[in-house]
Amino acid sequence: MTDTDTAKPRLALIVMGVSGSGKTTIGALLAGMLDLDFVDGDDLHPPSNVEKMHAGHPLTDADRWPWLDTVGATLADAGAHPRGIVIACSALRRVYRDRIRAKAGAALRFVFLDIETTEVERRMAVRLNHFMPASLVASQFATLERPVDEADVVTVSDRGGGPADAARSAAAMLAGVA
Question: DSSP letter string over 115-130?
């Protein structure tokens, strides 16, 4: 048996959901559990997108396309992330997920963090030093297209167990999907 026979396949994961759903926290925990690199998709936005959101304006699709291409390319970059990678990225619409899929390749999986509007509003009200204001929560939910019938998506519902519980649930579900 060779090393390649026992090597784990490279994973590329998106932890997705609306702003305030816990993408960054849960994504970082999940990456640690799976021994993968972690990138916050917010860090991949061009400065113009960050400025727009900070000013309280939702992004347009024209704003998002280059960012989504960067997210997909980062997921596909096996040289930079040979074991695999987890990226926190909203990926709210199917067309956004499809755009990422086209750039990232076949090994991509999504973890959708399903959360109630009232819980996101509560979290955003106490969130400090983030460029996404609470005033954009409604636009996030208005844009969200739940990933129904997408075979490469697992859904983790917010059951109040905390981020570590959500990350463990995601890891267990991904083990069944991979």
Answer: --HHHHHHHHHH--S-
